[in-house]
Amino acid sequence: MQKRYLFALFSFIIIFILSGCGQEPVNPNQTDIATREDNKTEKSLPPEKEETKNNEVTQAALSGLKVHFIDVGQGDSTLLQFSDEDEDFAILIDAGNWTGNEVVNYLSSQRVSQLDIAIGTHPDADHIGQLDQVINTLNVGEVWLSGNTNPSKTFQRLLQAINSKDVDYYEPRMGDQFEVGPLKIDVLYPKTISEHDNEESISLKLTYGKVTFILTGDATTDDELNMLQSGIDVTADIMKLGHHGSTTSTHPTFLQRVNPAVAIYSSGLNNTYGHPHDEVVNLVKGSNIQLYGTDVNGTIIVETDGKEYKVLTKKEGTITPSSSGSTAKDEAKVESAPIVGNCVNVNSATPEQLQEIIHIGAARAQDLIKLRPFTSVDDLGRIRNWSSQNC
Amino acid sequence: MEDNQFAVILVEEMKKEFIIPTEELPEGSKEQSYFEITIENDKITSMKLDKHTTLSEQQKVDDMMTKLRSKSTGSKFKKN
Q1: CB-hemisphere CA count at 13 Å for A73?
Q2: A309-313 and A344-345: which strand pairing?
Q3: Cis peptide leading into A47, omega within 30 of 0?
Q4: Which B residues in the span 11-70 are in contact with A, Cβ-Cβ below 8 Å?
Q5: pLDDT per residue over A325-360, tens digit each?
Q6: Chain B residues with CB-CB distance to A169 below 8 A
Q7: pTM of the complete model
Q8: What's the gap in Å between the CA of A305 and the closest CA on chain B?
C-alpha cells in the first residue's frame, strides 16, 4: 500500500545535471542510489568572531554596509544591508536551496522586511530555491533573473510569486550599471542567454565607497575569462568563489585579475560534490588570499564603511585543502584563527598586533585583553570609551 | 554531458533530493527532464523518462516568462 502511494505521489519529478563537478563524491555508491535531505538548522545566531582589516583610503563617510554570506547549507544566498540619509536598503542575491527555509528565517532575524532587489543568479534550485518564499513573505521591489528558465516546480513557484505579487521584473545584462543609494552595481555577465544556466549566471561587481565585491553565481572559468574581455575592471577586495568552490570556476587568471584579499565560498558540510574542491582551495590559499567558507565558518559577514572592512564569522575555523572530508572539517572547526595577512583575531592577538587595528591604541589594547573573549562586534562596546562608530 | 558526473533529482512532492551518477540515468536523459520514478525504502528503484511532461512543464514556464517580460518596465535603479 505504501509503495503504491509513493509511486502515484512521485509520478513526476525533474532532474538537473550538475555541470562539471570534477571530483569523486565524498560518499560514492555506484550500486545504490544515494539520498540526501538538507540540513534545515536555523542560521540566525550573531557572529562569534571578529577579524579586522584596514584599508588606507580617504573617503567621504558612508553608513555601514553589511554583506551577509548566509549559511544555507549546499546552496547560495547573500544579503546586502546598508542605509543612506535615513533610508534603509536591502538586496538579496540568491535564496538558498529549495528544500529549506533558512533564508526567510535569516532575513527575519536581521529584521529585514523589505528588499529593494531580489536576484536569482540562475534558475537552479540551490540558488532560487527559497526566492518564492522571500517574495511571498517580504515586500520586494524588483526581481532580477538571468532570463534562463527551468521547468522545475520550484522555478514555476518563483515565477508565480513574482506575478502574483506584481513585483517589477528585470533581466540585467553585461555593461548595465545601477545605483542603489550609495551602492554601485556593475553587471559583468551575461551578455546574452542561451539556456546554459550556470554558464550564464548573473555576475556582479559591487562598489561601496572604495570597497569592492565580485559575485559570479555558478559562472564557469570560460565565463570568467569572457568577463575579463568585457573591459570592466574586475579588481575587488572580496571575491565570492563561483559555484561553491568547484573547479568549474575560479580560473587562475580571473583570480589574479580580481586580486582579492578575501575569498568566500558557500557550500554545505560534507556535501556530495566535494565542494570546495582542493584545487581551488590550494589556488586561493597559495595566492595568500584569506579564505572563508560557510561549511566551516557558518554565516560570514563583511562589514564596511566604504573605507575599511571587517570579516565576521559565526564559527572560527580555517579552510584547509581536503576540507570536504568530515574529519578535516571537524578539526578545522576547533582551530583558533591565526593571524593571516592584515587580519587580527581580537581574542588571541598580542597588544602590538591589536594596535594595528584602527581605533585601538595601547590603552584600549590592554582593556580589550582584560575583557576577552569577545563574541561579536557589539561586544566590543564593553571596552572603555568605545562607541559603535569605532566598529 | 561528458563532464557531468552527477544528476540531482528533485522529488518535489517529497521535498527531497536524490543524487545519482549520470550513468544510472535512463537513455536519452538530459538536463531539466521529467521522469516517472518508483521509490522503495528511500531509494529509486526505477526511472522512466517522461518527455510529454517535460515539454508541457517547459511550455508553462515559457508562457509565464513571456507574461513577466511583457510587463517588465526595467529597473528603477538603472543608470545607463
Answers
A1: 21
A2: unpaired
A3: no
A4: 11-22, 24-25, 29-40, 42-44, 50, 53-54, 57-58, 60-62, 64-65, 67-69
A5: 433 333 333 222 332 334 455 555 555 555 555 456
A6: 68-69, 71-72
A7: 0.76
A8: 21
